[in-house]
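Justification of resources, computational component.

The compute hours requested in this renewal are based largely on the per-chain cost of generating structure records like the one below. Each record pairs the submitted sequence with a full structure-token output. That output is archived, and it is also reused by downstream analysis tasks.
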Amino acid sequence: MASPVALAALQEVARGPARRAGDVRLLPVVSALAAILPEAGLRRGTTVGVSGSASLLLTLLSGPSQAGAWCAVVGFAQLGLLAAAATGIALERLALIPGPGPRGPVVVAALLAAMDIVVVCPPARSRPADGRRLTARARERGTGLVAVGDWEAADLRVTAVERRWEGLGAGHGQVRAANLLVEVSGRGAARRPRRAWLSGTGEPLPSAAPDLGEAGAARIRPIEVA
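The structure output for this chain reads:
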């Protein structure tokens, strides 16, 4: 559980460098996501719901992180640092709070005042009012708020709808990469859903990935959160 002293210390550490990319209203993303996002990036103050794949979440964070943004992840104990580093996230600008306890909304609100992007995994019994308050605070502070799973007040939804394995044949071969079919939907300019294939390295793929049959395809399951 995060104490008030720990929260104050975290804010103090992050307050100076956190807005290093603060003059830019759009946070950059990898090229495949830029092709289907309404503004080809993440506008500060936007709330984004991400579902279907933990690797999609890391890929979404990698672009802003490489551009100098500070990121925080709250309540996602399964997040692997090796996977984050392999995706291109700068670990020296990544704050992890795996178990915020019952003060989770307070922790997230404090981080929204200090970070460029805050990822939150809402507990199963989270209150809708907390979500609305955090969304309003993110908009006020100009911080990107990324929610894992369904988030009623999300402006954008980024969803992995299908996964295909590269390298597999009919009963033979080795997995070289997992490619995701990603859909972006939401409000305003994102009202009309757009889709693109995303490679394991975050690069765009042709509009239709090779059909590898049942051996090379997998249904997407929700991101598991403790």
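The radius of gyration is 17 Å. The mean pLDDT is 79.
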